[in-house]
Amino acid sequence: MRRRPGWPSETFLARLPEASRQELLGLGPVHAHPAGRVLVRQGDPGTLLYVIAHGLVKVTARTENGKESLLAVRVRGDLVGDMALGGSPRSATVTTCGPTTTCVIKGDVFLAFICRHPPAALAWNTFTGERLRWANQRRLEFAGYDSDVCLARLLLALLARHGRPTRHGMDLGVPLTQPELGSLIGAKESTVQKILRDLSVRGLVRTGRRRVVVTDVPGLTAFAELPPSSAENHRAKP
């Protein structure tokens, strides 16, 4: 399906025809949220979904022992809250990472929209499948590779979906702390710190507060034990 300009290319809204996208954004009220606002809470029933029109949110889940893990980040053009529209309990919490604007849509209204628009139904199925594949890939890498390779692969995956060019290289485009990066690969903060220092010494990344810039995409691709041909796929897409 041809991507549409104006929205990050891997998001749900980018996959919709213009008329369908405009109709979807008119199905519910638009709300502005401050940083730290919980949109969806783990365990609550799922009756609403949120279309992110502006901003960034993080998806987290708390285990039975009380530990919180970061599962994913979502950007403008993405949907959140759509995985539990049947009324089943929410499997994760969604929190804004900064000022965020959303269109809030009732679950039954969204499902009726999907039924009226087959291209939107296909886009939703594809979007859902890609989210599941992304999560499964992280689990496979966690089981099959050392932490340094897992982190390199995670950085490249984030770069491919959210990255943006800067004068120093490719910024990940999402402000993640080192503990949050660690939770995505099942590693301690101290381990992530050590790996990032090593990658920095190798000239592959530059780090700052809640920021990682990949300065050498082909080099990081090789470090991640990925084929050279995949380096271009891990560059930011328009």
UniProtKB/TrEMBL annotation:
Superkingdom of origin: Bacteria
Annotated ranges, domain Cyclic nucleotide-binding: 12-114
Cellular component annotations (GO), alphabetically ordered: cytosol
Name of this chain's protein: CRP-like cAMP-binding protein
Keywords: DNA-binding, Transcription, Transcription regulation
Domain HTH crp-type: residue ranges: 145-218
Organism, scientific name: Sphaerisporangium krabiense
Taxonomic lineage from the root: Bacteria, Bacillati, Actinomycetota, Actinomycetes, Streptosporangiales
Keyword Transcription regulation in record: yes
GO MF annotation, one: DNA-binding transcription factor activity
Cited Pfam families: cNMP_binding, HTH_Crp_2
